[in-house]
Amino acid sequence: QVQLVESGGGLVQTGGSLRLTCAASGRTVGNYAMAWFRQAPGKEREFVGGLSLSGRRSIYADSVKGRFDITSDNAKNTVYLQMNSLRSEDTAVYYCAAGRAATMDERAYVYWGQGTQVTVSS
User: Fold this and answer.
1) Cα 50 to Cα 24: distance, rounded to the nearest angstrom
2) Which of 91, 113, 85, 88 is nearest to 40 (CA)?
3) Of 113, 101, 2, 11, which is closest to residue 52 (Cα–Cα)?
4) Could you say which DSSP state residue 81 is in?
5) pLDDT for 30-65, tens place per residue?
């Protein structure tokens, strides 16, 4: 069992940056593949990026590739999502998830956080 709590969301202007934090309790993040998803109003939840169980492989949605970066700090039991060059279309609730494999399919993830709102204003 693992509990995930996201933080770091907020309001930022277009072109700005934010770093989201996912703090885990219970089992360590090193035991799971970790991912970030997001859900905009009126839209389905979508994959943003994932980090393999080893932490050595990351995958990203095409829409964020080159702008977002996922890292982990196993000593702090924390996963981060660094978001740069933010656009209005990045506005969404961002969720942290833990599972057995880094995949774009949300069904692979067992544990989810409650989400943190990111709003990008133009």
Assistant:
1) 16
2) 91
3) 101
4) E
5) 889 999 999 999 999 999 999 998 888 999 999 999
